[in-house]
Each structure stands twice: as structure tokens, then as C-alpha cells.
Amino acid sequence: MKKLKPVFFIFFAALLLRLIFLFPQYSGDVKNHLVWANSFLQYPVGFYSRHFPGFNDANYPSLTIYFFAISRFIYLSVTSLFSYLNHLLPVFPSFFVPLFEHENMQLGFMKLPAIFADLGIGIFLLKIFQKLKYRKPLLITILFLFNPAILYVSSVWGQIESLTTFFLIVSLYCAYFAQRKHFYLSIFFFAFAALTKQTALWFTPFYIFLWYKELNPKDWLEGIISSLTLFVFSYLPFGLNPLSAAANYLSTLSGSSDYVSDAAYNFWWFFYPTPTSDSVRLGIFTIRQISIALLITILLITLIYLRNKYSKKNFFMALFLWSLAVFFLQTRVHERHLAPALVFGLLSFSANPYWWLSYFTLSTYHFLNLFLTLKIPFI
């Protein structure tokens, strides 16, 4: 029991810190999430064909819309309960009612999926560090839980990068550490990640390689069937059949812009002013074509290396290096897309404390990119 107390305290402190930053400020993106949640709760059928004047059209997959809707439902339930108790009990603190009706609180509830995903990532990182017998696994986990960049994305900004990364980590855990009969869940939870945000697909080649190494044909079959079932049923409430759902999902894969960098301080950002279309030419090729060629080259070299020297450590390293590659070399990326590297980086190097300075440097770089882009708090 004594061993559980520090873990509980640390995770509670991480949650409390995120809740403190939940209310004061937010990004305009969270207003989109609130509008989408209200629309889904009112009538989900036809959701993806709707336009929201003054807000963006819904461009997230099905499961993320469910998480937003659940957050909104919880908010409405809590405010209704507080209003009821305020009329029923004279001793009930009345200031709760206007506090929870405040716009900041309404938008703050939309950050809950990412906040709890942060904690979920921390739990699975701790479990993996313990399985691998790393020294001081809880201390390494603290580097993630209290990382200002991680906290800024989820609790201040209200973005959902942690939600996608959480399911990627669960998928990784299932492939390496689950019971034999549950290995297929690695494929299933990867589908979960892809149905929260399309950026999960960046890691598809590596996870396919992982499943090739760790799963048997029965695992593959169960994983693919369960994933396809998840995909089909997740879109049914929207009134979309499997073909329409696939078309809807594929239509969002090109990204929300065609810039060489969408506020990301990547390689191209240093040479081209924002906004610059990635159709601009460098010699006979466009920047987009060059970036794709570079990424394919890195991908092939990394997979060949893994084929010859496969191990958990090398696979974690490959995920980390690929996270850096897709952020720094790909076009159309956002500043927050560096977030997975901070998770896979801990898996790669946390056994060596001499690497921690590099981790702090990368985290600082990521945080500055986030803060200088959003400029919250407004100072």
C-alpha cells in the first residue's frame, strides 16, 4: 500500500495542475469542439455534411466527436445538478452556478479528454518502464506528466494530441506486454488512435512491422476484424454506411492547409516565410515532393535497420526518430505535432539519465513553438 501512495499523489498533482490551467484561457479551436459537440447531441445523423457559420466544419474522425459529446453531456449534467442543489439546499455554495455557467468553464470541459489522456499515457509509460526494469520508473514518468509542453497542449490549448498518442501507447503495450490472447488488441487500439486523429496513420508502417514481428496470423485476423467493426459501427450514428464513412475519412487526410509549415518550427519554416504553399519549387521539384521523398527514404532506411537489428529498444528509437522526421521534414504540419516525440523519446532514452538534457532541450523547443504561436496567456 505504501508503494502506491507516491504514485497516487503524483498523478493527483498532475491532474490538479491541469484542472487549474483548464479555466483561465483557451484557444479558438476549442469553440469548434463545443459547437460540434452540441450539434452531435442535438442530432447526429448528417453531422459531417453540416456547416457551422463562424466555425470550422468538422474535420476530426468519429471517436473524437464522441469524446467531445461526452464532455459536453457531463458538463450539462453537472450544471443541472448544481442548479437543482442550489434551489434545494440553502447551504449549497451558490457561486458554483455562475462559475459553471461561465463560457470558460463550458470550454474547459471540452479539454477533459486530452487531460485524462495525459494521465493515461503516464500510467502506461510507468507500466512499460516497470516491465523493462528501468531505474526510477516513477521519476521518468514525472518528466512526462509535468512537462510544460505536454500540459500546454492539453490543458491550456485544448488540443487532442494526447488522446491519439494514448491509444498509440496502449497499442504498443498490448503488442509487447499483454497476455498472449490479447495481442490482437494492439491492432484494435491502433484503429482507436486513427479514429481520434488522422496523424496516427503516420506511424502505420512501423506498427505493421511490429505486428509482423510480435503477432501470429490469428492475432492479425482478430485485430483486423475488430478494427473494421469499430470503424463501421463508430460511423453508423452519423448516418454513414461503410463506403461513405471511408470516403469521409479519406477526404481529411491531406490536412487543413497546403503550407510548407502550418506554424510548426520545422526545417522548412526556417527558409520560407509563413504562409508559403508547399507547391513552391526548389529546383525542378516542389517542396511537397522533396519532403515526401525524404520521408520515404528515412522510412525505408529505418525499416531495413529494424529488420536486421530488431529489439524493443531499437523499435522505440525508430518511433522517436520517425516522430522527429515527420515534424521537421514533412510539410503542412502544425506546431503541436511534435508531441508524440516527447513520449517516444522517453521510451527510447529514459534508461540513460545522460540523455535527459537533450529531452529537456526538445521539450523547451516544443514549448516555445506552442507558446509563440498561440500567445496564451495574453502577455
From TrEMBL:
Give the top-rank taxon of the lineage listed in the UniProt record for this protein. Bacteria
Q: Which residues cross the membrane?
A: 7-27, 33-51, 63-85, 105-126, 138-157, 185-208, 220-238, 283-306, 315-333, 353-374
- Classification lineage: Bacteria, Candidatus Collieribacteriota
Question: GO MF annotations for this entry?
Answer: hexosyltransferase activity
Arranged from A to Z, the UniProt key words for this protein are: Cell membrane, Membrane, Transferase, Transmembrane, Transmembrane helix
Please state what the protein is called: Glycosyltransferase RgtA/B/C/D-like domain-containing protein
Recorded family membership: Belongs to the glycosyltransferase 87 family.
Q: What organism is listed for this UniProt entry?
A: Candidatus Collierbacteria bacterium GW2011_GWC2_43_12
Query: InterPro entries this protein is in?
Result: GT87
